[in-house]
Amino acid sequence: MAHANETTSPPSAGPAAPSGPVRKKTLRQSDRRGVFGDKLFSGLAMAAGIAILVLLAFVALFLSSSSGRALYSEDEGLIVGQFLQYAMPLVGGTIIASIIALGLAAPVAIGVALFISHFAPPRASRSIGYVIDLLAAIPSVVYGAWGMSFLAPAMVPVYRWLHENLGWFPLFAGNPSGTGRTILTAGIVLAVMILPIITSVSREIFIQTPKLHEEAALALGATRWEMIKMAVFPFARAGIISGIMLGLGRALGETMAVALVLSGGALTASLISTGNQTIPAEIALNFPEAGPGSERQAQLIAIGLVLFIITLVVNMIARWIVSRNKEFSGAN
Amino acid sequence: GGANNPDTGSEANGAENGGEVSELSGTINAGGASSQETAMTEWTQSFAEIHPNAQVNYAAVGSGGGREGFLSGEYLFAGSDAAMDDDEYEASKEVCGPDGAFHVPAYISPIAVAYNVEGVDTQLNMDAETIARVFAGEITSWDAPEIAEQNDGVDLPSTPITVVHRSDDSGTTENFTEYLHAAAGDVWEWEPDGGWPSDITAESAQQTSGVVSTTSDTDGAITYADASQIGGLQSVAVGVGGEYVPYSADAASNAVASSPRVEGQAPNNMAVELDRDTEEAGAYPIVLAAYSIFCNQYEDEATADLVRAFAEYIVSEEGQQAASEAAGNAPLSADLRAEAEDAISQISAG
Amino acid sequence: MSTPTQETTTPPPPKAQNSLTQGTLPRWTWAAMLAGSVAVAAALAAALGAAFGAESFLMPLWVVLVPVIYLPAMLILQWVRINKRKAIDGFWKNLVYLAFLIALLPLVSVIWSVVSVGLPGLLAPGFLASDMSGITGRIDQETMETGGDVLGGIRHAIIGSLVITLAATVISVPIGLLTSIYLVEYSRGSWLSRAITFFVDVMTGIPSIVAGLFAAAATAWFISTASSLGLMAARPYTMGLTAAIALSVLMIPVVVRTTEEMLRVVPNELREASYALGVRKWRTILKVVIPTAISGIASGVTLSIARVIGETAPILVTAGFVVNANWNLVSGWMATLPVYIYRQFQNPIAPAATEPSEQRAWAAALVLIIIVMLLNLAARIIAQVFAPKKTGR
Amino acid sequence: MSKRINAIDLNVYYGDFLAVEGVNIDIEPRSVTAFIGPSGCGKTTFLRTLNRMHEVLPGARVEGQLLLDDDNIYDTAVDPVTVRSMVGMVFQRPNPFPTMSIRDNVLAGYKLNGTRLSRSQSDQVVEEALKGANLWNEVKDRLDKPGSGLSGGQQQRLCIARTIAVKPDVILMDEPCSALDPISTLAIEDLINELKDTYTVVIVTHNMQQAARVSEKTAFFNIAGTGKPGKLIEYDETTKIFSNPSKKDTENYVSGRFG
Amino acid sequence: MSKRINAIDLNVYYGDFLAVEGVNIDIEPRSVTAFIGPSGCGKTTFLRTLNRMHEVLPGARVEGQLLLDDDNIYDTAVDPVTVRSMVGMVFQRPNPFPTMSIRDNVLAGYKLNGTRLSRSQSDQVVEEALKGANLWNEVKDRLDKPGSGLSGGQQQRLCIARTIAVKPDVILMDEPCSALDPISTLAIEDLINELKDTYTVVIVTHNMQQAARVSEKTAFFNIAGTGKPGKLIEYDETTKIFSNPSKKDTENYVSGRFG
Ligand SMILES: Nc1ncnc2c1ncn2[C@@H]1O[C@H](COP(=O)(O)OP(=O)(O)OP(=O)(O)O)[C@@H](O)[C@H]1O
Ligand SMILES: Nc1ncnc2c1ncn2[C@@H]1O[C@H](COP(=O)(O)OP(=O)(O)OP(=O)(O)O)[C@@H](O)[C@H]1O
Ligand SMILES: [Mg+2]
Ligand SMILES: [Mg+2]
Ligand SMILES: O=P([O-])([O-])[O-]
């Protein structure tokens, strides 16, 4: 990063009162180094952006070049149908897990962020934020181990009960898992993992809400909740969605925790019985044994590509929501 | 290295010990199957004790990952639960010279069919067909007549059977399903594969430790796992030729020794075609033979010497004994060891 | 109220209260109500348990029922006794508090399980100062039999984790920060910025294992290309740097998205104030915009570090796994804490005696959490120093 | 439905800093009162205590009594929300909601009480309030544009419109005309004159002429020096304050011979 | 080191919206010029074109020429940063930097540009600038406190101090006194009087008396209606504008008989 080593001309020599900092005699006599600094910095910023594009281009290239054999084989020609048959249940499982995770985490996370920014006593709120951030510090292996050895067994009786009493409902149909290691448990673990992400982003934005606007709402006789609805949420909307998207990305892409917690299987609507698998877990579980250059390996990378596309679509929708009324921006 | 390490070697495999014990020096990076990771840890650590200047690293990236790294030259040898196919063997000639690579079944371990049923403290008997029916989900209760009739006098509870299988692709699964397919083909119609058939709904867990702990935690659960890692679980005595054979190291080692070799690869190749439906009395047919795959030819003398020394060490009586103590696998029989030593001696530099 | 009742279109007067003290509830109301809810929930849980066969989780059922009763009860009470708005405000307030309590549950549970299991291992002599060289299954079995201290430690893994994460941070944070600066300050919605935004979004969802495979493939390709051009000798691609690249792929989108949001809400008037003083744009960005947003940026960066420092899957295929320390990023393999934890869990050193491995794994997990905690603390302190001095006006 | 305001020994603090000390003041219903005084003497601070906006700042607190008619608004049983919906406020710096359209900004307070308005009713509220704030003509064609795209003066008038739309009992205005041109200023002054028929109006101003023009009573605040608390020096009929004040300081200030 | 400003056929746009049209004006060096006109007529907009602050807004652009002495500041070879370091600006809304202390706020023009000052030099700059803005006495004991903890008027004076600290050639002030009490206003007016000996000063004000007091020339802007562009109606000696303007509109406006 170009940092501020470079200083513009120091104040005129004498120890007396300094003159203006960038004293120029004429307009055209522009300060070369300054202009260069600007160019350099904007160039660097743009280069960083381009570097990301290049990186992504490489990732995409890597994924598509290694996934060819999943879609085309020499003996059978195009085998897209076969591939889709393999991929669709995984897509389903990934989406179910993410929906559970987001559904559970997003409301709680926004609640926690609000608690920290607007409800908790100001003195305590910093440390509370810190405590919640601790959740992000826990490595996914530990979440996996926790989900597997603690949460899952605890869920067994709940699932059994749900099945016995609400079994007519498709989500609770099917044989309740004897180990509790179902897609719902995995979803809960994912929810815990993405909670601090959403909380952290939303919290920082909530804190930035201009006092001026909060006071405007309060002075109109708004209750705290109405003030939040009127001044905080509209201001933070884009930020909240960004946080949720980051969390969702994590949920979609999380590998190890799901691999450890979920007792995977075929796609099923039931949340309480064994079954379902997510794309990242499927890759992580099967890639190590997939032979070099084999069709299996290609297939696994190809579902990685599918996950790419899912992420893309979800984020495009989110961006669209955010950009719908851009002129009503909070920065003004 | 530090305060509580038992040896002096640790990180300082540098000068101070040089020459005193061995002239071998350098680093071997290798990777592959996780099944033999425990044995590998034992081997690499003990090898480092004997040769303080030499270090062997083993990354448990899986068999496929190991073979891939080996074929790309990243790993000097690979650990793999499955033998290379012919394409891979051809590819190995690029990194290993004209004779390509060869397999040594350095880690042999019986696969136990292990279960956890409250109230059953004795070893249960099951023939291949019963095992297949249980794992296929056709027998769902522990007091089913098929099980009861093979276990006179055992008081079987009506606990439902929970099948636990590996969720990751694994050599253990491949060997187990190979056995089921060979010995009970009319029940088990699925092709042998490293992944569990997706149309059987059952519980699953990652890695051997995962299936073992899941089984231990679940009443009525049954699984298959490397026998050395089943801990306190009961295991099935498998029906072979009318008798019921519990797993044992000798039985496993013998099963490998008596099996035919895979044809068409390097002359010193020791990959085996395990004979699963053996009727031989006393043989235990569910065996995992995990290979170490070496090049016949390495780039330079130093590397060749180092790899040869390590390979010799792992098949040596001492090495096998050490692994067996730590990992609980079956030591190589004398015949197999001799054959392996002969194969390894052909490692050369090119 | 002034507005005399006019024809039907007249808007209703916008308020209902006439007296200041109208309908307040005594201060102890909530406590009483909570106590009541607890009691009712207990009774209900017992009844439900009996009716639906849920005896095995009476406690959790009870805990769940308390808010289920308390929230609506407070809502109704306030609605009836005060007014609807107050009731709704109170309801959401209670929900927010509840959200916080819910978030604490897993936190306490995870931290408790890690601390209680991991602490003995952490306190084992030499755990932080030694590595795993020389630790074999036989040693662990002996430990189990004799009941001695668990040998072996995590020095090498701590070094690996710190070195690799630091390298990933050094790669990702400047790129991420500069990119978000480009997006917020320079691009003005150009096609390039839209493309970057688009692809950064996609990056958030890359599974970590794919990132690892990609980094391995890319480094291998780069090395082979460079060596065939004679620029460098062929060498293994498995090294710390490759892992750092894999982690960067995971880290960059987190940095970009968080800092982008934080930069966007910096008031434009501050930028203008700076420009009007004849300050160049890049200095304005560095000295006005970033300091104003620093606390958000710092928490974004810590978030991204926390995100990757716990990664397992991509490390094994990019940095390998070793038992002793290696400080060199570009040569030799490295071990990191998550990989160490994972391997100790999944493949105990001695399969017949797993306790020592489990103890090491949990202790390592505890150390990892402590490291991230300290990083987080450091980031907050840094942010605190630069952050806007808040006084409401 | 205007109210009387009565402060008794009111001290206002920012944390430990006593910003305003010992204010006793009695403001008649249906009147306009002007607060004048040098910058930093605590006019804004005191004004904000009148609708409990002061306590919104962390650490800020108030001692003493503040009666609205006969209820102490700082009584523990009193909900600040109720106070604020009775006592409306226009801030020194215009603060329209940037994420709302002009129309929604005007309706922001109105919608709070949950009364559902028909389209025509809300149109009427918007039009009335904007006309009252002398902004209607300028914005009637772009009611759905964001409020932040207006000029400074327009924004300020929008905030006034937002406040009068909810028809509070008391209206506090903190230098409402400081960003306005003379025409809008006149319009606001007219508006204040109208408002006082029904509401109690308190206005902070730096403009002596304005204070003289619109208010019936004037309160002069002063501060002895930096770090000292602001005090209410004199409170009397406006004509008296400007022609014949009883305190020397007041005279100096209103005649511009101060400082 | 003051400069002459000369606008030739200047049109100012926000995107497609023509906000100010066809301005021709010639501002003498070492003089004070006041811009007056109704709210929304484009005073702020035009003022911001004088130091190229206008183009900071997305989509905003300018047509025509603006000569500073003899150079067109909108020439492609001209660096806007150079322009802004010559033409300082005080905004309508006080905007001190929230991350900086009062002292650093005053020194912002130096510090942000990376100019290193010795302790004594910077002390001198701070004291001079704060005295110039009539703020020194109020803040001299808390120079290290954040600038955002000041009262509205104090903040505005802080912003003025910040601008004069860097000693530009031209100083633009957008309603600098709108938040100030009469004393500070007087002080600022005195300051302007002093400044004009060395600088060119342009000031937007809604206060006719102020325009009459401080300026030598006055420019009256007006707008025909919403959505229409603002125009420069009349530009002349201040005395002429206030006593005997040549345009009807101007007369109406300055006499308050407008709208
Ligand atoms: N948020 C705050 N924290 C601490 N002190 C404050 C805060 N706001 C104002 N003050 C101090 O309280 C005193 C009174 O400030 P106040 O804003 O009430 O003055 P004012 O009379 O409204 O001045 P002005 O006419 O400039 O608006 C001042 O000394 C000011 O610095
Ligand atoms: N950022 C902007 N985008 C679009 N239009 C704008 C913007 N800022 C101002 N305008 C419009 O340009 C016109 C001129 O506004 P300007 O702020 O220059 O008025 P002004 O004369 O300074 O008014 P006031 O005295 O109220 O400050 C107004 O119609 C205003 O709505
Ligand atoms: Mg004030
Ligand atoms: Mg303006
Ligand atoms: O040896 P596996 O772990 O692949 O069964």
The CATH fourth-level homologous superfamily of the largest domain in chain C: MetI-like
Query: Based on DSSP secondary structure assignment, what is the total number of beta strands of chain C?
Result: 0
Percent of residues in helices of chain D comes to: 25-40%
CATH class annotation of the largest domain in chain C? Mainly Alpha
Class inferred from helices and paired strands of chain C: mainly alpha
> What is the tally of beta strands of chain D?
10
The quaternary state of the protein chains shown equals heteropentamer
Instruction: Figure out the total of helices of chain D.
Output: 10
First-last Cα distance of chain C:
31 Å
SSE arrangement of chain C, N to C: HHHHHHHHHHHHH
Within CATH, the superfamily of the domain at 5-93 and 169-254 in chain D carries the name: P-loop containing nucleotide triphosphate hydrolases
- N-to-C CA distance of chain D: 41 Å
Number of helices in the DSSP assignment of chain C: 13
Unreliable runs of chain C:
1-8
Task: Describe, in plain words, how this protein is organized in 3D.
- The complex is a heteropentamer, with 1 copy of chain A (332 residues), 1 copy of chain B (350 residues), 1 copy of chain C (393 residues) and 2 copies of chain D (259 residues).
- By secondary structure, chain B is of the alpha/beta class.
- Chain B contains 11 helices and 14 strands.
- Chain B has helices at 37-50, 63-71, 86-96, 128-136, 145-148, 171-183, 207-217, 249-257, 301-315, 317-327, 334-344, and strands spanning 26-32, 54-59, 77-80, 101-116, 125-126, 162-166, 203-205, 221-226, 234-235, 237-240, 243-245, 287-295, 297-298, 348-349.
- In chain B, the strands form 3 sheets. In chain B, strands 1, 2, 3, 4, 6, 7, 8, 9 and 12 form a 9-stranded mixed beta sheet that branches. A 3-stranded mixed beta sheet of chain B has the order 5-10-11.
- In chain B, helix 1 (37-50) packs across helix 10, helix 4 crosses helix 6 and helix 9 runs antiparallel to helix 11 (334-344).
- The longest helix of chain B has 15 residues, at 301-315.
- Mean pLDDT of chain B is 86; it is low at 1-21.
- Chain C is mostly helical and 393 residues long.
- Chain C has 2 domains: 29-118, no CATH class; 137-386, MetI-like fold.
- The longest helix of chain C is centred in the first third of the chain and has 40 residues, at 84-123.
- The radius of gyration of chain C is 29 Å and the shape is flat.
- Chain C starts with 28 loop residues before the first helix and ends in a 7-residue tail after the last helix.
- Residues 1-8 of chain C have low confidence and may be disordered.
- Chain D is of the alpha/beta class and 259 residues long.
- The radius of gyration of chain D is 18 Å and the shape is globular.
- Chains in contact: A-B, A-C, A-D, A-E, B-C, C-D, C-E, D-E.
- Bound molecules: adenosine-5'-triphosphate (2 copies), magnesium ion (2 copies) and phosphate ion (PO4).
- One magnesium ion is lined by residues 43-44, 92, 174 of chain E.
- Chain C: Residues 1-20 are annotated as: Disordered.
- Chain C: This is Phosphate transport system permease protein PstA.
- Chain C: Residues 158-379 form the ABC transmembrane type-1 domain.
- Chain C: It is found in: Cell membrane.
